[in-house]
Amino acid sequence: MLDNVDPFIGTAATDLPRAHGLAATWWWPKPQVGNTHPGATSPFGMVSACAYSGAYPTGYGRYAKNTEGVPEEMFERTQASGFTHFQQSGTGAIRKYYNYVRVTPMVQPLDDLGQSWALHDERAEPGYYAANLDTGVRSEITVGEKVAVHRYTFPDHHSARVVLDLSCGGLAIDLGRTVPLRAQVESMGHGCAQGTVVMEGVPLSVYIEADTPGWRQMLWYDRRLIPGGTRLDFDSIRHTTLRPFGLLFMGSARAGQTIEVRMGFSLRGCEQAKENLRRECGTAEPAFEKVRSGTRARWGDHIGRVKVEGGTPARRTVMATALYHSLIKPCVADDESPFWPNSGPYAFDICTMWDIYKTQIPLLQAIAPDRAMDLLESLIRVCEEEGNFPIGYRMARGADRFFRQASALAHTAIADAHALGRNGIDWGWALVHMADDLRRMYGEDFFEHGLVHPITHTLDLAYAHHCTAKLARALNDRRLADDLERRSHQWVNAFEPTTGLLRDSEFYEGGKWNYSFRLLHDMAARIELSGGDKGFIDQLDRFFGYGAEPVKQPGVGPQPAEMALGYALNRFEGLNNEPDMEAPWAYHYAGRPDRTAEIVHSTLTWQFGTGPGGLPGNDDSGGLSSWYVWASLGLFPVAGQNLFLVNAPAFERATMRVGDEEFIIETSGHRETPIGVDGLDHDPPAQYVQSATLNGKPLHAGHLAATDVHRGGRLHLKLGPEPSTWAHGIRPPSHSFTLSKPPANT
Questions:
Q1: Where do transmembrane segments lie in this chain (predicted)?
Q2: Do both 71 and 218 map to the same domain?
């Protein structure tokens, strides 16, 4: 599927065909833009590179900062002032936006540095990005895991130059700029240079080699050359004292002359940056094609771990691109932590856990288990160093700025990894940190009162107690397990008994309906709060818009009154945002997987498409794209419960490589349906599971243990155009509280 990937999907404002049926009743409160970028990336690699305009939030494109509705344009055209490194992928307002070390090919004077030029003939594929600047320079970039290689083809000019600006960081929006605290740049002659900039307490080092025969190499400060200078040092930089600084290579260029600039990066000094450059680029020159082909091979391996058969060309493009977006973040840099000196993975750009823990981390556990375990090892180390498991983490000490969103989410991923029998983690040591983390931040109030506002933190903490109790019980710490399990059932305190919905509270990016249908560890008791199956299904039907009229989505700069009316609908957000992304599968617990099929089918049909406007909302580091991958496969992971829910897939046949095994999802009776079909007055018929077998044996339940999937096998689903009674009577497991019994001899 590698050739089906389109990195431009999600880079522009949402532009999907007008939805019909259920999807037309869903309301989108959050930004209608994917916030992805088309730059060069490597799977989970430390480095990315893309054209830089300063726009929100990746540095690429032309949009201003927005938190709801259609984004306003910051620029009238797609433009760039150069090419930067370390971009976000699909996030929103995270306050720190990287985009370090800007490289600008120029045929203008240095005084014009910072000017933007229009981009033409943009091209992108996994690991490669290219565009023409208005100045006539063809720009190509590729990256490895810790390196970036730029290749510029110049027009005929007597004074061409490649300028590196080490002062650059962040975006050209209010509060979006990042200023280095300290810096040093050293010109080492013969096309070599190195430098370190300290951003938010993190020393980012770069070692640079440039193939510029006959060109001069000079340092510059405040857009003025420093003839004969070999080193710049800045011991203390403030916003008021910052002036641009860096180095450049300059000389005459003949038409078609190519200049290659190679950069190795490290968070542990220039010498390690040089070693990283040598490891990936070698000593032969040039290195562009070598790095490009190596990264393409890595992408081919990772994306090839999921294969699908059937599907329209558009559906295959969306699927391949969703898989690609799911594997960009988090960044995992081996032996690169600036905070602990020993070896081991350093995972950063985890923005944010509340977007990725339900869908993306389970996907990594399935198809990239080594990197999933690296992530967990790194999170445990962050907890050791900083005192808590982060909800999101950036390349900066004390970088968890996301605690308002949620609480104690790493616990779900750790519990799942242990249940799968993963190695490489000291589970006893992990348990110590998990238990301690439950008392921090909002956890203190939960411990004392069993109730926390914002109320969603009550659900988070109760669930994390359950996940931690599972690990404690597996490690034979019965006393701790009993205490945690008892507290885990305080989730009930979050609900209003008379309505079966969450209590009134503050809600982050949603309302109480969006959060009321989360998949808890005791869904049987949760359903009883709503009056049993019928009451629960009636509430879900209302939430998903059965029988409702189509709604109007917010436009550019929606007014508060318009947004208040939208929130008052108490409606599913249609994957425009993540808080209710697991809600369609709540029907499984009430014996109505056919309803799940209708909602997921409608979502896959209307809410995702091809082209730059093909995403319904922020991709959020791959959390949204991972949802699409799972939904297309007909599986949904219940994070923290070692469980998959089963639904009709979007493809006739799919194969997922899990470790050394393969899990195959095959169908009979599958009907091919296009995506985004405009002009229909209702959804295409949903496909419903009529019966199922697992490894040739009848499967009467609509769920599987995650271990069944991870050990490999064959799931066969017989599909039909009408609902059936399949899986109505066998519900996914619920975990009610019971004290563990002491051993018989005590």
A1: none
A2: yes
